[in-house]
């Protein structure tokens, strides 16, 4: 037996302990095992990981020890501990293996070879352990976790990264929240397992050709969970039971959300609202964007421009239209609460005592419960009393001039150690009501169960960006974030007077109709002049961004798709219920619904909107036809011409500017309503 390790078997776990590390392998519900490692020779509470990580269900398991080899069998998942590394099996098929390059016990220095039993197994002089800790602070470490790679494996999820790759294998990903990048370190593999990395430190993961490498820059432990299942749906159900599922949403919020950078007065919002009513369109939401306030950190309307906003909000509720307000975590020195925030340690503190995190402003420390309480009271007193229940938590990463989180401290320690959890702490500051989501620009584990609606950030206006949004929508759903959205036609850099932008608006809007939330937003050029010299008047406003802002042809087509969305609302609400009950994404990869179809695992440009509709967004300018794969096992109806196609084949589909490839399962409930909904 290995003299370096001591072993301990308890009710639901086993531990391997030596002078450098404690390794704990623990049952974590049905078909799930949690692995914990610390260099401190004792288990330390992972207070900066997931706030709440439940076991999915009670399970039957057994632990078998034979010398230095330990087997942990939990349902279909088996973990084998041998030679200080872990092997994971799903129904006895190896799915994941820690990477180790160490020498075996036999060395020249032991003695005469004839006196030593020769073990025929790999032996390396690299001295690389599967789990390593490198001290970098007084009580903290850089952690490194290594796994063997499989270049043929397919890996999906990981949150929202600005790229077109749906399969993350062979890619390198920064574990850091940025504007237009949301880190949710969970993935699903085509080997029918899910992997959850429970560390909120800044770091990175590399799915390399030679090994998988997870790094946390500033931590005290390694903590991860492996889940196995029969298929992706099974894995997502088990995973979302652990981290939480989205609550139910109000059905009235599933129509059009109207927003732009930025409406400047009560009268302007009322005018936009009336214009929609004149077109017999009742928006679900109209959004009041940033700098409606007096100063950053005051969390109040500037009454010079927003007089009687409470009366307008009350009036809009008669048509089930809600107002939403943007809030930021920034604090200017001119805020009337600045000294209070500062004196009560409610701000992230620069280590050099002078740096400003973003735009010469401080950022609120939401890890401090007193900060949460104080800001939440301001939001309640200054907005909810004005009949406003919807909040937009912008800058939720938080955005930084230079992303150097280790240069700032929170009330709980160095910011780098817990930075990826900031969006969740921010979210928990927002007053939430049942049925009302919080629009937010980033997320973390548990965010979905608190009603977060995550949008993909300040993205550019291009067809390339549109292609990326398809991948992001699918990846977020596979990361457990079932509610996500985008700025239709992108946020910035587009010339809205050109034909190319107008076509982009149409194609993006068509895509967004078949997504969780249909949301107009953007910073359109040119900007208008300032309307004042103080408070909310000092910022300019972008050009108009309503459905009628881009010409009559664009308005006609967008109106057509608003009507389609309205007729789909019962179906869409059913998808939200599935998200609440089972954790399923609303927009789903093809393989989520068709796991036995090998081609479905490779398709990155089509997706399922629920179980009945297959959507292939039009992704290039002046595109008139595209290849679409229809999964095996069903016949499919083109919803715009009723033509029927056999599944399991590729087809070249032609379309006009008014249509896109949308197919419905022939034998589905929705198939009976195709003509009513689409024609």
TrEMBL record:
GO terms for molecular function: carbohydrate binding; hydrolase activity, hydrolyzing O-glycosyl compounds. GO terms for biological process: carbohydrate metabolic process. InterPro entries: Gal_mutarotase_sf_dom, GH, Glyco_hydro_31_C, Glyco_hydro_31_TIM, Glyco_hydro_b, Glycosyl_Hydrolase_31. Signal peptide: none annotated. Keywords: Glycosidase, Hydrolase. Residues 583-668 form the Glycosyl hydrolase family 31 C-terminal domain. Residues 252-574 form the Glycoside hydrolase family 31 TIM barrel domain. Gene3D superfamilies: Glycosidases, glycosyl hydrolase (family 31), Golgi alpha-mannosidase II. It comes from the Bacteria. Belongs to the glycosyl hydrolase 31 family. This is Glycosyl hydrolase family 31.
